[in-house]
Every structure is written in C-alpha cells, then in structure tokens.
Amino acid sequence: MAWFRKPKKPLKSGERRDLPGDLFEKCPGCGEILYREKISSNWNVCPGCGHHLRITPEIYIGLLTDEDTFSERDAELRSADPLEFVDLKPYPARLEAAEEVTGQGDAIITGEASLDGIPVCVAVMDFRFIGGSMGSVVGEKLARLGRRALETRRPLIVVCASGGARMMEGIYSLMQLAKTSAMLAQLHEARIPYISVLTDPTTGGVTASFGMLGDVNLGEPGALVGFAGPRVIEETIRQDLPDGFQRSEFLLEHGMLDRVVDRRELKSTLALLLRHMQDGCGPGE
Ligand SMILES: [Zn+2]
Question: What confidence tens digit (pLDDT) does each residue in 203-256 have?
Fold first, then answer.
C-alpha cells in the first residue's frame, strides 16, 4: 500500500525558500502584522494604532532636514579605550562590531542642515550603537556641534535615544554630562534656541543632561523617557508604579515635557517653534 506515500527527498542546503526576514514586522502596539514597505512610507508609524516604531538616524535626518542639505561633521571621531575595558569582549571589539552594524563611528550623527528653510545644527543618536550610550565621542561631537551653533547662531536640535552613559569609558562618560550641559549653558547665554526631541528609549545620563535641558523638550508618542528603569524604581521604593509611567504622555501630564508630537508632524512643529523663538533675530529670517 505505497500508493500515497511520497518519496522522501531531503532538502539540499540552500534550497529553502524563506521569505526575506524584513518583509513584515509585528507592531508592538497592536500586534498587527505590518507590511514593511507600507510602514516605511509612513515614517514607521503603525497606520492602525499610531505606535511609533524605532527608526535609524539616517531616516530621522531624511524626516527633519530639507533634501540634500545635511552635511555631516566629525564623522571621523573614534573612541579610545582608556580603561582597557573587557566585558564579554574587549571594548575596541565592541566598537568595531557596532560600527559594522550601523555604519557609524559612534552613537551620534551630527551636522548642519536646513529645516524648512531654517539653517540648523542637528544631531541624532543611534540606539543600535551600544544602546545609544554616551561616551567621550558622543560628548565631543555634541560639544563641537554646539560651538558651531554658537559661531553661526544656528539653533540646535538633538534627537535623543540612549541607554545612558557608556560604562566602558567609566568616568570619561560621566564627564560628558557636564561638558554637554556647559555647552548648552553657553547657547542659552547667547540666546540661541535648543530643542530636545526624546524618542524611545531615552534614559540615564542623557536624560540627566542634554535630553531634558531643551528650551523646548518634545517627546514622541509612547516613548520611554526616564532616568532609572521602572523595575529598579519599583524595587527601590517598594511600590507599584502607575500605568504608563515614564511614557511621553505621562511626562507631559507631570510637566516634564512640553509637547508630545507625532513623528509625521515633527518637522513642521520644529519649524514653527524655531520661527517663533527666533522672531526676526535668527539666521533663518
Ligand atoms: Zn499598531
């Protein structure tokens, strides 16, 4: 009775025809399976529930700046290994691996561009690069960008995404909090606007420094923004935390953010705020 028996033919290697892994993505907000191309054309915002999926710095630059106006600065800066730090692997190897994945030298891209015709200095962090952690290169690139903003009187915009200070650089990472804050104080004194955009997730040393120091602090919908993580806080104070704790909307309600802005309206909102703040005295007028 071998009528219905199929001959068993082993699969040869390389014969499997998988769908490309990046064709579909599950929305973490509503669980819907989304066609990648469709959400890409929507700046990675779920058309069903409005959940903001993470996007790369390159996409943010495309979203915020006028076409072909972005000119990157200090892309050549690389971290040293002052502590000769070894975790799972030596720090230089971690850096190399991160560079391979992201195509970037560190966790931030900085440069000059125009935004709706307004000349700006802009920086975008990359969470894929060792958790968007802030080491000496992130701090130095921001400090140099701030100096350019000061010299050219261009407003500064920073899109944050970070797990905090980079432990592999120890005290050198922590010094970047003071360094970036001092740079922002100079901008403040010179009355040059600085806007911080907090995206999912922004925590630790970045929240404790330039993340929250904007003349205006904007948050993307649903972004996790805080200093320590909810689990650490819960264990420390031994209390349950309220729903939506450390999300943009919660922070807005408690006065920590000025506005929660849909990514698709981010550029127009920034342009409106900058025009309002510069009011005839900035370079864009
Ligand atoms: Zn969704």
Answer: 999 999 999 999 999 999 999 999 998 889 999 999 999 999 999 999 999 999
Sequence letter at residue 36:
R
Residues in CB range of 29: below 8 A, 6 or more apart = 46, 48, 49, 50, 51, 222
Instruction: Using the mean position of ligand 1's atoms as its centre, give its distance from the Cα of residue 31 in Å.
Output: 6
pTM comes to 0.90
Separation of 127 CA from ligand 1 center, angstroms?
21
| CATH number at 54-278 | 3.90.226.10
Q: Where in the chain is the domain with CATH 3.90.226.10?
A: 54-278
Q: Per-residue pLDDT tens for 137-187?
A: 999 999 999 999 999 999 999 999 999 999 999 999 999 999 999 999 999
Angle formed by the axes of helices 136-152 and 170-189, to 10°? 10
**Residue 110 Cα, ligand 1 centroid: separation in angstroms?**
31
Q: Which residues have CB atoms below 5 A from the ion given as ligand 1?
A: 27, 29-30, 46, 48-49, 51
